[in-house]
Specification:
Number of strands of chain B: 9
Number of strands of chain A: 12
Radius of gyration of chain A: 15 Å
Number of helices of chain B: 13
Helix content of chain A: 25-40%
CATH architecture of chain A: 3-Layer(aba) Sandwich
Largest sheet of chain A: 9 strands, mixed
Distance between the termini of chain A: 11 Å
CATH class of chain A: Alpha Beta
Oligomer: heterodimer
Number of helices of chain A: 5
Strand order of the largest sheet of chain B: 8-7-6-5-4-3-2-9
Shape of chain B: globular
Strand content of chain A: 25-35%
Chain lengths: ~190, ~290
């Protein structure tokens, strides 16, 4: 199985390491040609504004949007979730707009308020999570299922083959969420 | 819920990788940087080139200025404190600055020590010229490093020198026996445990950007080719003729550093770069990297 990690900017290496530890081929995605043959793609954390500007200026935004709309399984973490969201409540832009949620950018505040905790995930139990200037999911459409909660709020959601987390599983040693995503990819 | 842990600090720095952090002195400049695709801005009163030209004691920026910049953009805002100036660092932390740069660009406040950065919730980035300096900053709790270069010169040679030295030292470290490592630790003034960690990882344990002299997209690409995780651009953008265009070009060059055709395209018609200074023309006491 070959999984891509969007590599324009951000925590690319960490996701690639997680995938390698699960015995999966992981390729950095920088150009449209890198999308060929992928069974899934991870959009890593980083700065969503920077990532989007790089994506669109390098001609990668459109082919990637088409691939996701065509059913390519995708896992967005933090900034990646913002790129996927249909609406951003406190920012005038919208990026791929494929996941029917409204997110608030930097909802946990500034870096001094960033934290680590465990998240309750359906079927997996407590999963360690790192929240960094994290977004919050404020609204969800009917097709969106909440898989993980922290302090009663949704932090991990799924809509078909689209998975989104407000936190960073790739900064922990726990591989269960990556494994969960690989299972989504196997189903296609 | 655990705040301010080392994982939260270093994890935040991981999010900058592949990106450009730009020095800004006004909210307008901060917005230009954000629109260009900067991953963070460094809020300053004067860019290094002006600090160098005007002389005098360079201090932390006015909190009002920092707050204005924080209010102007959605991306993280960093700010500099003087080396060893614990009080400036506490003020910056209280302001909610996302990262503190304990920086040789400002006039050092403590002739003996750097800040004990473990005592803070906010993460710190520090400069280094070699592996010994990098290890000492890590021992003090730095969550991110940057090679120093020579700030405010528009001359990349010192940035390259420091990155080359660091790479060479890490390469040699990887081959060392334990006995050699202990002697080497003494030689370069580095804690043994941190050298052991670097030997095992085969790289620095935190994100390392390049800084000090980056002025063109090609400079940014060069530093990435040499292994920098990203670049700080100080005076190079807002001291150039067309900051908007240059900032965008540097952002693209930082990511697509291995694509010469793209580098050629983005380097075209950027207007005048900042005026550069030859390092040999700077008197030794005016070099910031030895602070």
């Amino acid at each position: 199985m070959k999984i891509g990690v969007l590599a324009v900017q951000g925590a690319v290496r960490e996701h690639i390491l997680c995938l390698h530890r699960l015995g999966v081929e992981a390729v950095p995605v920088l150009r449209p040609a890198d999308l060929a043959g992928l069974q899934g793609i991870i959009l890593p954390g980083g700065e969503s504004t920077a990532q989007w500007r790089l994506l669109s200026r390098a001609g990668l935004a459109e082919p990637l949007a088409e691939a996701i709309k065509g059913g390519l399984p995708v896992f967005g973490t933090c900034a990646g979730l913002i790129l996927l969201a249909k609406r951003i409540t406190n920012w005038p832009e919208r990026y791929f707009g494929v996941l029917d949620v409204a997110v608030e950018r930097n909802a946990t505040g500034r870096q001094v308020d960033s934290f680590e905790a465990t998240v309750a995930v359906d079927g997996l139990g407590e999963v360690p999570a790192v929240f960094i200037r994290a977004p919050a999911i404020r609204e969800m459409g009917p097709g969106v299922e909440v898989l993980g909660r922290y302090a009663g709020e949704p932090v991990l959601v799924r809509q078909g083959a689209i998975l989104g987390a407000t936190f960073h599983p790739e900064l922990t040693e726990d591989l269960r969420l990556h494994e969960f995503f690989l299972n989504l990819c196997r189903k296609g | 819920m655990l705040k301010g842990t080392y994982r939260v600090k270093t994890g935040f720095a991981e999010m900058f990788k592949g990106g450009v952090i730009m020095d800004v002195t006004t909210p307008e400049q901060a917005q230009i940087a954000e629109e260009a695709g900067a991953v963070a801005v460094m809020a300053l009163e004067r860019v290094p080139a002006d600090i160098r030209a005007q002389g005098g004691v360079a201090r932390m920026a006015d909190p009002k200025k920092i707050k204005e910049i924080m209010n102007a953009v959605s991306i993280p805002v960093m700010a500099k404190c003087r080396i060893g100036h614990i009080a400036e660092a506490r003020i910056l932390e209280a302001l909610g600055v996302d990262f503190i740069d304990e920086s040789e660009v400002l006039t050092p406040a403590d002739p003996f020590h750097h800040i004990d950065k473990w005592q803070f919730k906010v993460p710190f980035v520090c400069g280094c010229r070699d592996l010994g300096e990098a290890c000492r900053r890590l021992a003090e709790g730095a969550a991110m490093l940057r090679t120093k270069g020579e700030a405010g010169t528009g001359n990349v040679v010192e940035a390259v020198r420091h990155m080359r030295i660091l790479n060479d030292q890490i390469r040699r470290l990887k081959e060392m026996s334990r006995a050699e490592l202990v002697t080497y630790a003494k030689e370069i003034g580095a804690p043994v445990e941190i050298l052991e960690m670097i030997q095992e990882l085969g790289r620095l344990p935190v994100v390392n950007f390049a800084a000090g002299g980056v002025a063109t997209p090609a400079d940014a690409a060069l530093m990435r080719m040499l292994g920098a995780d990203g670049v700080f651009v100080g005076s190079g953008i807002f001291k150039s003729e067309n900051p908007e265009k240059r900032a965008k070009a540097i952002v693209l060059a930082c990511t697509y550093y291995d694509d010469p055709e793209l580098l050629a395209k983005v380097s075209e018609d950027l207007g005048e770069a900042m005026p550069g200074i030859e390092i040999e023309k700077i008197p030794e006491h005016a070099l910031m990297q030895y602070r």
